[in-house]
Every structure is written in C-alpha cells, then in structure tokens.
Design brief:
Layout lengths: L7 H8 L3 H8 L7 H14 L5 H9 L5 E6 L5 H16 L3 E6 L4 H13 L4 E4 L11 H5 L4 E4 L9 E5 L1 H14 L5 E4 L6 H16 L9 E2 L5 H12 L7 E4 L2 H13 L9 E6 L2 H5 L5 E4 L2 H18 L6 E4 L2 E3 L8 H8 L1
Parallel strand pairs: 1-2, 1-3, 3-4, 4-5, 5-11, 6-7, 6-8, 8-9, 9-10
Antiparallel strand pairs: 10-12
Helix pairs in contact: 1-2, 1-3, 5-13, 8-9, 10-11
C-alpha cells in the first residue's frame, strides 16, 4: 500500500471485502457476520485506521459539531496565545473543543480557514481579522447560520458580534503618562493604516497631544509590522529623524519589546535613556527587564468574554450581533522611566 492516509478502500482490500461491508462494520451494523467483522477489525488495527465518528455523524445528521473555530492573525504574539487560553477555559467547561488556527496576517489564508472550519461543521467562530480584511470578506459567512464573534480588531460594517478593548482610551492614558513625565517628542510605533486598531489607538494618542497643546507630527507615527521585529525596525526609523523622540507609545507589547531590543542595540537603555509604553499587558510584560509599562486589556479575560459571547449566540440560536467594549487600565512599571527633570538631577 502507498504511504499516506489509510482509507476505507485500503481496509476493504486488506480484509478481502467490499467497501460497503467495511462501512457497515465501522457503523456497528449487526448485519455483518462475526467472522467478517473480525477480519475487518483486524485490518483496521494492522493499518492503523482511525474512524472519524464525529465527521460521519455530521454527514448523516447535518448537525454541527461541538467545535469552536478560532482564527487569529499571529500566533507568535503571546497576546493571542493568552487569548486562546481564555477562550478554552470557557468552551471546555461548556463541552466544546477549540480548533485554533493562524492566518499569519493573510486575508486569503483567512478565507481558506473559514471555509475549512465551515466544512468541519463548527458550531461558531471567533475571528481576529487579518490586516486588510474587508467587511465584504465576511459576506458569505454572515449569510450562513454560524454565530461569529469578531475580536480584538474592529471590522466596521460587520453584522457579527464584536469584542474590542477601549483602544483610544488606553493610548490616551499612555500618552498622558509620558507627557506628565516631561516628554514632548512622543512617537507612536507599529501597525499599518489598513488595520482598524491602528486608527483607534492613534486617535487616543493624538487627542492627548492636542489637549496638552502640542501639534500632531505625522513623522512620529512610524508604521511597521505589529511584531517584535517590527518594533526594532520602528525605533530605528524614529531615532533617525532630525528631531528624534524621547519616548514612544507602541501598538502592542510585542512592538514594545522590539523597541527595547532596538534601543539596546544602540547602547540606549529603555526606561533610562528612552521611555517605552506597550499595549496588552501580556504575561512577560511584568517580568521583562525593565518591566514594561503598558495598557492592560487582560488577554485571558478578553478570551473568556469572547467565548461567553459566542456561546450565548449558540445557545439562543440567534445570529443577532452584539458590540462589547472592554475596559483598559494603564499599568506603570519601569520602562517608562522617571520624570525628565528627575533624571537630570540624578545625572548631575
């Protein structure tokens, strides 16, 4: 037999019976003779075949599985790992399992995953949209009866339930904190214009500058991937400006960690020579050196909220969308440093 997945046809050939006989054995039919059944079961064991009873049930009944599909845009970002943990806490206790996949910021890959999960009869979907996702990409999905929760990144115009953090409020608080320390050249690092979350977070940053009587400088908004590598890239470009910033609010913690790496590669110390603030408050933010000042959204709690929102729709058999915005809070640690005048006094 050729290498690859064992099929019913392979079992039939090995047992010397028809494909329909193998199917009857797999279904537990009493119409198959005991000696034939024994021969088929021996072939199943020898070939290592695993019967997907759940898929067979779906084909026969047309019902959905006890599976929740989860599509995130970047599993290398620990925020999404924590989000998935929160989702799992809720769905597992409700008797469901989580089918987790990453689209790697690719809308085409995202569509493939959505199609695959629909084929597997998932009971509902939680999706963190890929960069560049359009509401039209979800048209077919919204036309189906599958409950959907769009989480973390907004998708304006969607009819699905949405779960977002208070993005503008968070970056406003982060920027105000840096302003209170005496910074006036504050950059916003990470993200791209085709990410709705960037616009929301930049708006809070911009509002804080305006209220402080400072002009918004587009040069200080540095687009880069929302990853650690993107943070290294962004701080390099920010520091090369004719008037470089002395502090930065970052799109997320992954970018902030990269900013710290980039600063150290230039012999600058985060929290001492340059103030850094992240967004998310992932687990390693507290243990990083220096510990990261960040806007806490409670990733695991957000995952639990997303799962609860989805199960509510599943249990009510309703596709009516619901919008939820979760609260955020600024957690001040070492990476944002001390007030500028205090640093100068300590240096003298």
């Amino acid at each position: 037999m050729a290498e690859g997945r064992v099929t019913v046809i392979d079992i039939a050939k090995a047992a010397g019976v028809s494909k329909s006989t193998v199917s009857l054995v797999l279904q537990g039919s009493a119409s198959v003779k005991s000696e034939t059944r024994a021969r088929v079961n021996a072939a199943i064991r020898d070939l290592g075949y695993v019967y997907n009873r759940g898929a067979a049930t779906l084909r026969q009944t047309g019902s959905r599985s006890k599976i929740i599909g989860v599509i995130v845009n970047d599993l290398t970002n620990s925020f999404f790992a924590e989000l998935a943990v929160g989702i799992d806490m809720v769905v597992q206790s409700a008797g469901y399992v989580q089918f987790l996949s990453s689209c790697a910021e690719n809308p085409d890959r995202q569509q493939e995953l959505i199609s695959s999960m629909r084929e597997h009869g998932v009971s509902g979907l939680i999706i963190c949209p890929a960069r560049g996702t359009q509401v039209s990409d979800f048209k077919a999905l919204e036309g189906s009866s599958i409950p959907v929760v769009v989480a973390v990144r907004n998708l304006p115009g969607t009819k699905a339930s949405t779960l977002m953090s208070a993005n503008a409020e968070g970056t406003r608080a982060a920027t105000e904190h840096l302003l209170s320390l005496g910074h006036r050249r504050i950059a916003f690092l990470g993200g791209f214009s085709d990410m709705a979350v960037l616009g929301e977070r930049v708006s809070g940053y911009r509002d804080a500058l305006r209220d402080a009587g400072l002009l918004f400088d587009e040069q200080l908004v540095v687009n880069a991937p929302s990853s650690r590598a993107g943070g290294v890239e962004a701080i390099g470009r920010a520091l090369s400006l004719a008037e470089p910033p002395s502090a930065a609010v970052c799109l997320n913690d992954a970018v902030a960690f990269g900013v710290c790496d980039g600063l150290r590669s230039r012999k600058l110390e985060p929290g001492t020579d340059f103030a850094v603030v992240g967004f998310d408050d992932v687990i390693e933010a507290k243990t990083a050196v220096p510990a990261l000042t960040t806007v806490s959204v409670d990733p695991q709690g957000m995952g639990r909220r997303a799962a609860t929102l989805l199960l509510k729709q599943i249990n009510s058999n309703s596709s009516d969308g619901e919008a939820v915005i979760t609260a955020v809070r600024l957690v001040v640690r070492e990476s944002s440093g001390k007030a500028i005048n205090t640093r100068q006094e300590n240096a003298s």
